[in-house]
Amino acid sequence: MMEGIAAVLKPPSMSSSDVVVDVRRIYETRRVGHLGTLDPEAAGVLPVCVGRAVRLFDYLVDKQKTYLCEIVFGTATDTQDAQGIVTETSDRVVTEAMFDGVLPQFTGRLLQTPPMYSALKYNGRKLYELALEGKEIPDKSREITIATLERAETLGKNRFLLSVVCSRGTYIRTLCSDIGKALGVPAHMAFLLRTASGAFTLDRTFTIAELETMKAEGRLSKSLISCEEAVSHLLRLDLKADRRKPAMNGLPTRTNAADGIYRMYCGGFLGVGTVRNGDAVLKVHLYTE
User: Fold this and answer.
1) Which of 7, 75, 121, 148 has the largest count of CB atoms under 10 Å?
2) Closest listed residue to residue 14, CA positions, set 159, 201, 209
3) Each residue of 157-174: pLDDT tens digit?
4) Which of 275, 51, 74, 98 lies closest to 188 in space, CA to CA?
5) Structural domains of the chain sorted by starting position, each given as residue range(s) with its CATH number in brackets
6) Catalytic residues, which ones?
7) Which H or E element spans position 102?
């Protein structure tokens, strides 16, 4: 059975759940899960864990995301994107100087209120279901981090291309709406492209059609990024040869390594482990017997 991470190029008008369904069918396994939802109308990198790679979710999901989005001033919608119902309009023009000047307000650690039209849940129900029923919920603001926020291009009157590097859980359409509010001009997100999710980048993605072709040609394994490569951002820890079996059995190994999370090796890649108070313990088993 194949395992690893498939970086799928999700097209607009396809949900992240639909991608998971297709990946299950193509790789012929139920053990599949994506590393961060993309809105249906958004496009770009959607990393999908296949097989034992799903065990790496907690070590990969919190990585930074990179986006390109088009922000349009003069119109606000109830969904904060181009698919919503117009709720406010304005003839005011936003200049490049105005736009560039407001962006520093939205870098660093911020509190963001997720949009009601989202798949987040409140009391077990998705927010968009409550929104369709006209129900309100208490303020659910949460902390996000925006590392980089820059105007990439001016696309026309009141239309700008925005480059964003941010933490998990950031809603780019809400960011666009909030930028508009800061300038006193209604705004919405017209287009969104995720160009990177952690180490998974646009240039290493495959469309669903490409994956199907690779499967038909017997090349499907080449579409997967190995579990070992996926956690290459972690420090490496090598155990002595006689500690392979004890490590595989969950027993601790004494080490001088600092506390933290490591890629663990002993005669080959074992998986991901932790060091606490001098004890190294394998937590995610990814070795081949």
Assistant:
1) 7
2) 209
3) 999 999 999 999 899 999
4) 74
5) 4-62+199-229 (3.30.2350.10), 65-197 (3.30.2350.10), 234-285 (2.30.130.10)
6) 39
7) helix 96-102
